[in-house]
Design goal:
This protein is α/β, with parallel strands linked by helices and 309 residues long. The protein contains 11 helices and 15 strands. This is Peptidase U32 family protein.
């Protein structure tokens, strides 16, 4: 049984070595101008340093270029790809075909990971983008375990699955917080609108709080709960899923480090001693629950939801 890659989102260059020591195999970094919903905004110098540190420790770095690009940014893509090739990024994450077109011309040997958040829902689509040049498909968060296993069985590309952290529920290229505030009391109310962090949409009907933030790419609304399936990894590992992602957006470096350690232990146990994993998996889940922020309940996302056709 092959161990899946453990992919983590560091908050800074200083996190690379501790996370590598904790068991991370690869990292996602990037610049807000080109990447969506990053755990932190890495400048070019920081991207270069992160790659250097990771490679010195035998780890990989994937750089996010998964934003939606309007015409004013398209001309920049080739130069940024050439920079990433120069600093030896292990792959580029993309969703907009403009990145694929730029890469074909500027960096034809660059590894590409296809990620559109919501449309990687079947193996045929994953293979289509594989034929266009993608090495990996990052699956939508809204599909269940049975679909993930089926996709891996039929995929001609690597498969990446998010196993921990919050999911994206909505994005708009517009700055929408002002509009929400204007309609306060009629739809939902925005809490802490003027702060960069700890902003929430209140849905009183469902009794949920949705983290919301604005950046250069617009407005982002996140899930009210965090995915956590540290106790449900075996089926995907047996199916051969290539990469498990821990998304650390809006989390502290200390939290990401501890979660990485626990998933490292879970993956190793599941591959090397499945019976021991069965014995310890509930304890591993309990340890995450102990460090989980009070306003972020854990659930299993869509992994065990019934598919409706």
């Amino acid at each position: 049984m092959t161990k899946p890659e453990l992919l983590v989102t560091p908050k800074s260059v200083e996190d690379i070595i501790p996370l590598a020591d904790a068991g991370a195999d690869a990292f996602i970094v990037g610049e807000q101008r080109y990447g969506l919903r990053l755990a932190a905004d890495f400048s070019k110098d920081e991207v270069k340093e992160a790659i250097q540190l990771a490679h010195e420790n035998g780890k990989k770095v994937y750089v996010a270029m998964n934003a939606i690009f309007h015409n004013e940014k398209v001309e920049e893509l080739a130069d940024y790809l050439l920079f990433l090739q120069e600093v030896q990024a292990d792959a580029v994450i993309f969703g907009d075909p403009a990145v694929l077109m730029a890469a074909r011309e500027a960096t034809p040997n660059m590894n590409l990971h296809w990620s559109t958040e919501t449309t990687a829902t079947n193996w045929y689509t994953c293979n289509y983008w594989g034929r266009k040049g993608a090495k990996r498909a990052i699956l939508a968060r809204e599909i269940n375990m049975d679909a993930i296993v089926e996709m891996k069985e039929n995929a001609e590309v690597e498969i990446e699955v998010q196993v921990h952290g919050m999911m994206t529920m909505f994005q708009s290229k517009r700055s929408l917080l002002g509009n929400y505030y204007e309609y306060q009391g009629k739809v939902m109310e925005v809490e802490n609108r003027k702060q960069e962090h700890n902003m929430f949409l209140h849905d009183k009907e469902r009794e949920n709080k949705y983290p919301i933030f604005e950046d250069e790419n617009g407005t982002h609304i996140m899930s009210p709960n965090d995915i956590c399936i540290i106790d449900e990894l075996q089926e995907m590992i047996e199916a051969g899923v290539d990469s498990f992602k821990i998304d650390g957006i809006l989390k502290s470096p200390e939290y990401i480090l501890e979660v990485t350690k626990l998933y490292r232990k879970a993956i190793d146990l599941c591959v090397e001693d499945p019976d021991q994993y069965e014995d310890e998996k509930d304890e591993l889940l309990s340890k995450i629950e102990e460090i989980q922020p009070a306003n972020r309940p854990l659930d299993t996302g869509f992994f065990f939801k019934e598919t409706v056709y």
